[in-house]
Amino acid sequence: MTYARSLMRTKPVEQITQDGSNTALRRALGLWPLVALSIGATLGTGIFVVLADAAPVAGPAVVISFVIAGVAALCSALSYAELAGSVPVSGSAYSYTYATLGELIAWVCGWCLLLEYGVSVAAVAVGWGAYLNEFFRGTIGVTIPDALAAPPGEGGIVNIPAALVVLLATAVLLMGVRESARATVITTLLKIAVLVFFVVVALTAFRSDNMAPFAPNGITGISIGASAVFFSFIGFDAASTAGEEARNPRRDLPRAIILSLAIVTAVYVLVAFAATGAVGPKVLGDSDASLTTALRLVTSSEWPAVVLAAGAVIAIASVVLTVLYGQTRILVSMSRDGLMPRVLSQVNHRAVPARNTALVGGLVAVLAAVVPLSQLAEATSIGTLVAFGLVNIGVVVLRRTRPDLPRSFRTPLMPVVPLLGLALCAYLVAGLDEVTWLTFAIWSAIGLAVYFGYGRRNSRLNRTADPVS
Predict the structure, then answer these.
(1) Which is nearest to 398 in space by CA: 72, 101, 103, 108?
(2) Predicted confidence (pLDDT) per residue in 88-107, tens digit
(3) Among 138, 130, 309, 122, which Cα is nearest to 231's?
(4) Phi-psi label, residue 176: left if phi above 0, alpha if psi -120 to 50, beta otherwise
(5) Measured in Å, how far apart are the chain's first and last C-alpha atoms?
(6) pLDDT tens by residue, 319-336
């Protein structure tokens, strides 16, 4: 085959599935743990923290921003659901792209997923520190000094709480998948309860004056807000990273992806509506711990804010846990294909990729300690949108190239839904900052250098393919 064709070779679905069925990982997750995994990876910093960035720009119309981002995520989620039922392995969008668009595109997708998962864990951890301080302020009357609770550039030297929560999540993951799943289910139920509590309290202080002007910056503000809050939907695909640890992946993965996205979208819209109606968008933008600030302003006592802060501390920690889990499982798939070092797919006696988990946890802890939240959130969004776009293309390609492939879920209105998902991803990408684009370009260049310097030469497909002429 020619050199160019070798870059676009696909990995047969049957081979991907066989690799997944021979996994050393343990199949221990049913439908509801998978739903909890996706909700746990999604419901956290996006609503607890990023709302503060989007509300001042979009105004009360930030509710519409959430709806637009949710629709964009839904189109991609339907594509994910079909591919998760057809290719039930741990690699998520990386494996789906490998089966449809070829090795080079799969590498680009996998590299984007590393950005999405790794950087979003760091971003979530940064937001965790703000709510931890709110909890300390309401209970013992002291806070962690800015020098030790904020990164350089935001008044601090190092963000110790952010690094700490990543290391704690790493320790839980090293205990095993059953223990991690149990912790995820408990914390997911808790965070939903806390957000319902916030909505109930905030609605008692709802004022229609706070909803006007509804869209102070017009369509432009809503679009920018949608691009920013799309970060809140990152993680609904987390169930697809558990394809090799699900008991019945073909049946349960599609259901878990769609159920989790529906629940999360409903919660986000309710919280955004209640928060802006209670205190207005400008007040929400004045604090990283915006929901706690809102409760403190609309209630005469401190305890509701303390309850919310405590819930946020636990909720955001669970996001760190579940997203870090997804990151390690994608690396397992890339390593098994030879595109990453073999050590990253080795598992221990607990059926955990221990070295992989420890390495990822350590690197993300350092990132969380020194990089500001706003830069992390937007860098995560662009990596996610590129990966989602590729999944939408991949589901159309696989329908044409493998119409006979067994599918436990079929994306409706093919190819309208995936093409709409692709268009919405492009629309949201266009709203991101130029600095974010520059960061992504640098990240992509590094990724291509790693692929051509290491991945391509060590690829399992490359070792079994005909010599390249």
Answers:
(1) 101
(2) 877 788 888 998 898 999 99
(3) 122
(4) left
(5) 6
(6) 888 888 888 888 988 998
